[in-house]
Design goal:
558 residues; alpha/beta; seven-stranded mixed beta sheet; 20% strand; globular
């Protein structure tokens, strides 16, 4: 394979004149009124295609480590061929759903309404409700594999024969693979709320479709039809093989995340889908439809290499702080080969001069220092809170309506008063106990493993949401470095929290319509990817609802 020479990297100071010369992308907000997706002709040619790649779990430090040791790698060439933002941060919470939604809407959870892949709404009715008059609101909003018609099948219940080899025949309309009986119910209409209808704002795909452009995406659950946006059809070709299904060919009962080789195999199916799309076909490779204007995928294999203690005879996670261990190093090389395959195919199809590649991550992973790991069983903490509440309020039920504790603590309460939130806060901050570390030995903890706990109105302010918002958690706990809530010893890292290890992700914009060899050290956010995609395609970023609400600026890439 022919290789381009690696260009010397310019610092942001040295590159400032180059960026200014080609025009910084500074999309500022206007009114909240609808905006035409088209913008006036630009003085510099826009890209025709944007390929977005999310390498889940990847930190900027991981990318720097790998490219320094592999200066001729695809990842190194990608970074050197465009603009690398070395201080990018993803959304908080740093979970997959708010992270990906942020990249494709320009908004944070307080605007998009999407706080986690498994959240709660005090305004919706529980799944399965058919008699809505007089029904009590309060419902889990599950955006995981649980929504699938068959969550144990790679095709989410489509019924394909010959799996896993036939998975590319999976539908590009996964909404029809969601079981509506598992969705929360809108009390006004008494109908199930699909993920795309739950999202409060539109998406890049919505805007691109309205402009007559083709769209595609590949992700890990059928619930990612949330990215369709309000229209419900923003993505024309959405390929979502179920990652938490039974991994065929691997030990019984394991899903595709329990063995890192299985995760690589799983990622390979989505890579093949994107290669087919580069070639001008749909994800299956069966129908010629033209190369999408906006398309891409997420990788999961780096994330499992960070979380698994070991797999395939290799130790997972990090050797020492920030230094990848053998399994993670192997996976960085795996992802590099796939990115290289995309770049090669773009050149082979003469699309490299008209395609911009954006590389980032939905989330990081914590901790990157194995010595910092403290695993805490959150079950006794929540059970104790419920018991204390019922003791103080005879005749009442549990206080905790829903909890999500990975390496953050998000609680939704049955009593949404400030007094109840303060009660929970006081109880949790007084709890101490013993967890376990990377070696399985006992590690003491205090304050439930937290450094801060925001309650009631404080939690709403933390997310820039209105007090009493039906979706915002009633308590938000920020954990100490290295704390992971788990009852076992099967994982050595997690995401979802607010530590730098969760938030600090890479961000590279490379290819068409970008200068080469620029490194920007200023702080940026992954929510800036959405307006950047539209600007690159010659569309108006203000057509995005969240861009107007949050005044999200596009990245300065040309």
């Amino acid at each position: 394979m022919s290789r381009r020479p690696v260009r010397p990297v310019r610092t942001v100071t040295a590159a400032a004149a180059a960026l200014a010369a080609v025009g910084a992308l500074t999309a500022t907000a206007a009114s909240a009124a609808p905006v035409s997706p088209r913008v006036p002709a630009q003085p510099h040619r826009a890209a025709r295609h944007v390929l977005l790649l999310s390498i889940d779990g990847l930190h900027q430090s991981d990318l720097a480590w790998y490219t320094a040791r592999n200066p001729h790698s695809a990842l190194a060439r990608l970074a050197a061929g465009g603009v690398e933002y070395t201080h990018a941060r993803t959304t908080n919470p740093s979970d997959s759903f708010p992270g990906m939604v942020g990249q494709l809407t320009g908004g944070n959870p307080g605007t998009t309404g999407v706080y986690y892949d498994d959240a709660y709404s005090s305004a919706l009715l529980p799944a399965g409700t058919t008699k809505c008059a007089g029904a009590r609101p309060g419902a889990e909003v599950d955006l995981t594999e649980d929504l699938d018609r068959n969550k144990d099948s790679l095709d989410a219940g489509q019924g394909l024969s010959g799996l896993p080899g036939s998975i590319l025949k999976m539908t590009g309309d996964p909404a029809r693979l969601i079981d509506p009986s598992k969705l929360p119910v809108d009390p006004r209409t008494c109908k199930p709320v699909y993920p795309h209808a739950y999202l409060k704002v539109n998406t890049v795909f919505d805007v691109a479709r309205k402009a007559g452009l083709r769209t595609a995406w590949s992700d890990k659950h059928a619930a990612y039809e949330i990215l369709d946006g309000h229209s419900g059809d923003g993505i024309q070709d959405l390929f979502t093989p179920e990652i938490n299904s039974t991994a065929l060919g691997y030990p019984a009962g394991d899903d595709w995340t329990k063995d890192n080789a299985a995760t690589e195999q799983y990622d390979g199916y989505k890579v093949r889908a994107v290669l087919n799309q580069i070639d001008g076909y749909d994800h299956s490779g069966s129908h010629r439809v033209g190369t999408p204007a906006v398309f891409g995928m997420n990788f999961q294999s780096v994330s499992t290499a960070q979380k698994l203690p070991s797999s395939d005879g290799l130790a997972g996670g990090y050797r020492t702080k920030g230094v990848p261990g053998p399994l993670l190093a192997k996976n960085l090389a795996f992802v590099d080969r796939q990115v290289g395959a995309f770049l090669t195919e773009l050149r082979r199809r003469h699309l490299d001069s008209s395609t911009t590649v954006i590389l980032s991550a939905k989330h990081g992973q914590s901790p990157i220092d194995p010595k910092a790991l403290t695993r805490i069983d959150d079950g006794p903490l929540l059970d104790g809170l419920n018991a204390a509440w019922k003791a103080a309020h005879p005749g009442s039920g549990d206080l905790v309506a829903h909890a999500v504790d990975d390496d953050a603590m998000l609680l939704w309460l049955t009593d949404r008063s400030q007094a109840a939130a303060d009660f929970a806060r006081t109880y949790l901050l007084a709890r101490s106990g013993t967890g376990n570390g990377i070696d399985g030995q006992a590690r003491p903890f205090t304050a439930s493993g937290l450094t801060a706990l925001y309650a009631g109105a404080g939690a709403a302010r933390y997310f820039h949401a209105a007090p009493g918002d039906s979706r915002v958690p009633d308590l938000v706990g920020v954990t100490r470095e290295g704390v992971v809530y788990t009852g076992g010893k099967g994982k050595i890292a997690e995401h979802g929290g607010a530590h730098a290890d969760d938030l600090d992700v890479p961000l590279v914009v490379s290819g068409a319509a970008t200068p080469h060899g620029v490194r920007v050290g200023g702080a940026v956010r992954t929510t800036q990817i959405a307006p950047t995609i539209l600007r690159l395609l010659g569309l108006d970023p203000r057509a995005l609802d969240a861009v107007r609400v949050e005044r999200t600026r596009a990245l300065p890439v040309r």
